[in-house]
Each structure stands twice: as C-alpha cells, then as structure tokens.
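Course assignment 3, question 2. Fill in each field.
Student: A.L.
Task: Predict the tertiary structure for the chain below.
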Amino acid sequence: MSGPPFLGARKMRLFGISALTALVALALSTTTASQQSAVRNSDGAIEAAMAARNFSAASAMARAALEQSPRNPKLWTLEAIALSRLGEAQEALSAYDHALEIAPDYLPALEGAAELEYNRGGGSRALALLDRIVRLSPENSTAHAMLGVLAYQHHDCRRAAKHFEASRDAISSQPAALAEYGSCLVNLGRPEEALSVFASLVALEPQDARARYNLAVVELARHRARDAVVTLQPLVEKAQPDPDVLDLASSAYEETGDTPTAVKLLRQAIVLDPKQVRHYLDFATISFAHQSFEVGVDMMNVGLKENPDAAPLYVARGVLYIQLGKYDKGEADFAAANRLDPRQTSASVAEGLAELEQSNRDQALSTVRRQIATHPEDAFLRYLEGQILFERGADPGTVEFNDAVHAATRSLELRPDFVLASDLLGNLYLKSGEIEKSIAQSRRALRENPSDQEALYHLIQALRKTKDSKAREELPLLVKRLAALRTESRNQEAVQNRYKLYEPPVDPGNVNEIRGSQVNKPGSNNDQ
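Answer field:
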C-alpha cells in the first residue's frame, strides 16, 4: 500500500448542539427571579430560530436577552452556538469565553469552546478544555475521543489508547479514530486488542482497502494466516492489485504452507513494482527457507538490475551464494554492500558469518573486530566476536575464553533481551563449571524465547550438575519439553522442505519477462 501501513488522522466532528430545550432549562436554573421572566420570554423564540436554522435571528435574540441578563452563562453559550453555525468562529469563541469567565465549569460552554479549538487545529487550549471536561464528566466519551485523536497526532499512543478505550461508543462509527486506536494498540504491543478494533473497522467500511490491509497485518502478526488470506482476497482479486497487498498476501499464503501461491503473488508484486527492494528480499527469504538458492540468486540479479545501488540486495544475494558454496561471490557481494552503505553493519556481520562457515575463523575474527572498532555499541558484533572465539576452541582460563565471556557479557549489556548472547554465555559458563551462572543465563534466554532449544539443553545439562536438589526436580519436565520442541522443529522442517522452487532461466534484463515458477514436490520429474 502506498503510504504508511496504518491510516492517518482525519478530523471528526463530535460535539454539536443537541437538546436545546434542556440547555435553555439549565439557563433558567441559575438566573435570578427578575432575569427568569426575560429568559422565559426569549427561550422559545431562540429555540425555534435554532430549529429553523435561522442562526442570525437566534444570535440577535440571544444578544437582546443578554442586555437584560449579562451575567447569564447560558445565554452567552446560546449566542456562541448561533455564531459558530454562522461560521463566525472567533466571535463564537469570544462568547464562550464570556460564559466561562462567569461559570468556569459550565459544561455546554466548555464543550462548545473545545469543539471550536479542536477544529482550529487542536492546540494546547483544546487539550486544556477537553481535560477539564473529562475531569468534570469522566463518562463524556466525546471528549475522550477528541483527546484520543489529539494524543495520536502528538505520537503519544499510550495516552491515545487510554482515551480511545474510554470512548468506544463514540468512535464505533468513526473510521479514522478506529484506525488510529488500532495503530496505537499495535505500537503498544497489544495486537489481540488491535485485531478486534481493525475487525470493527472492516465491518464498518468493507470497501476500504487500507482497513483490510491493516486487519491482515495484525492477523498475520498473530499467526492467523488463513484469516489474513480471507481478509485480503477482495484486494488480491482486483483488476489492478496493489503490490504491497500482493506481498502481504504472499507472506500469508507461505505461512499456510501454500508456497506456490506465495511465489506467484510475490512475482506479480515484483512485476508491478520492480523498484521496491522489499519484494525481492521477501523472495530471497522464501528461496532460503526452501533451499532454492539458485532461484533466489536469479531473482536478486533481476532486483539488482532494477536497483543497482540497493545494498540489502547484495547482502541477500551474498547469503544465497554462501549457501551454494560460492564463497568468493558471496564475499564480493558483502564488500559491494559495504561500499554502498558503510553505515550498515549487517553486511559486515554477514561477511564474518560467511568466513566462519568456511572455518576461516582467524579471518572472521579480524573482520568482526575491525567492525567493532567502528561500531563499539553494536550488540550483534560483540556476540559474534564471542561466538567465533568459542568456535575456535578456547579453553576455560585462557585469554581467549575470558575474551569470549567478556564479549557475550558486553553484548547483553548493550541489548538485554538478546537471546543468542544469553545462549552463548550459558554455554561458556557451563564449560567453565560456573553452574549457577549458566543456569541463570539459560533461564534468561528462555524467558525471552520459551522455544529456545539451545537454552533448554544447556539448562538441563547445568541442572544435572547442580547440588540444588529442588532445582533437579525440574529435570523430567524439562527433558520432556525439549523432546516435544525437537519433534515440532522436525515437523516444521519437513513442511518447509516439502516444496522446492523451480524456474526456467530468467533474463535479468527485463523484469516483465519473469514467468510463473513451477513449484514441485522434491523427487518429481521437474525437481532440481
């Protein structure tokens, strides 16, 4: 989709004149006995003029009544309402201000002034007025809705979500507010609640492409890929589908196991928008997952023909080359990526990993340490340094082993939720006999990722060596849990490898010649 994945703000008009009879009745409740007669004589005429949309007459009558009752905040409010309907916003605000000078907590005047300030751009005065309204009337869903919109515009999602939640009834028919509420819930890490909000938005506006796209994004994030496929189907079937929709639908189909459709849609997205680097990267991901490295390289060639300065495409192709054993080509691509975008450390990380896979660990360590000198706060580079030192066979008590521990520890300091660094540190402590430290690191990794098999294995090994009998009681359950995870992992691997991509040779010079690939089960006549 063009633009951001979630809808932006649109103005909504929430306050307005309602129950004028009740408003005039309220006016009578705070006037003196001598004033009440004049108000009673004028209220019917003012109300009739309002109902007939004769706001000029209503304004004139309100001014006349104010000559007799200049301290009546309700009459000032009636005049302000009439003036605002005549398009005289500044004069209306002045009238509301008169009412609020007399009665600072008079809700009709607060609401009217807040609406005008909100429509003028929602500055600090609008926020102050709306805050006063919700303090006086906590159940005022309209004011909460306005505060939610203003908080969203100021990128304060926590405050916006709070006010939107308090105004669900008011925003249930407001597409813009629902979109903003859903977006904030996603940003706050509350996708399940966002799912409900975006579903309501699609029900409200089923033809709104962005609403459908947003819902599908959240459904896919919640691993409801089949629901996302259904949500996106009307957009996919359009005569001219949006490439971003096709890319998202491709991800949904891939998660359901329908790789052929995923590939078909992704190719269509690339043909429609050959300059969009993300589409090629998603194709590389599918190629990698299904071990179709040659097909992935062919598509990266197409992408680089269209986007010759795209560093991520060089990185992706380099990774695919490494999987094919073409290390020289892989390293050349990583070098090209670094030249194009020296700020991007991912290319350097990939280069280090490539050299590590070749067992050229000395060169890998040199590469990583050169990058650390330039990017000392990069947690991944610190982790990679420790991993390479560990792979080199450093023994406890040696300088290299201590350096590995230091590198993994520094990685976690820079990024406390980095599971790979916790796994490495847990393994290092296990090797050095520091059992309690190893247990602590493995538990830390499992808190971040309960499916981390490496951490679970290290924890089992450490608990078998601990003297804590109570901790050892966990062992049977942990062993059973590890076995279940390994079975699940094997099943997932079988699903991923069920299909291999096959494609006739592609001419990289013309993206429009990309043909639909055949996707076959391994072992078929067409399988390569």
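Instructor remarks: The chain has a mean pLDDT of 80. DSSP finds 29 helices and two strands in the chain.
Grade: pending
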